[in-house]
Amino acid sequence: MKALGVLWIDAHPDVQPTTETPHAHPQVLGMLVGRGDPDFVSEVEIPVEAVRVRGSYGAGQRYL
Questions:
Q1: Strands 53-55 and 6-8
Q2: Which 8-state DSSP code applies to residue 55?
Q3: Distance between CA atoms of 19 and 49, rounded to whole angstroms?
Q4: What backbone phi and psi angles, to 5 degrees, belong to 53?
Q5: Distance CA 61, CA 63 (A)
């Protein structure tokens, strides 16, 4: 199996946990890496490793 990487280009990292927001849209990237709402996370068959995610959501900030 080949490793998958993600380049996330957004104004926000979209990794907020369910404890911070009731909405799904700020959790999208978090769910792709296996973190977040269990119902959504269970739909991701192969989570992306957090170390393989790069983004443009703030210089020097690390969210994962």
A1: parallel
A2: E
A3: 22
A4: -110, 130
A5: 7
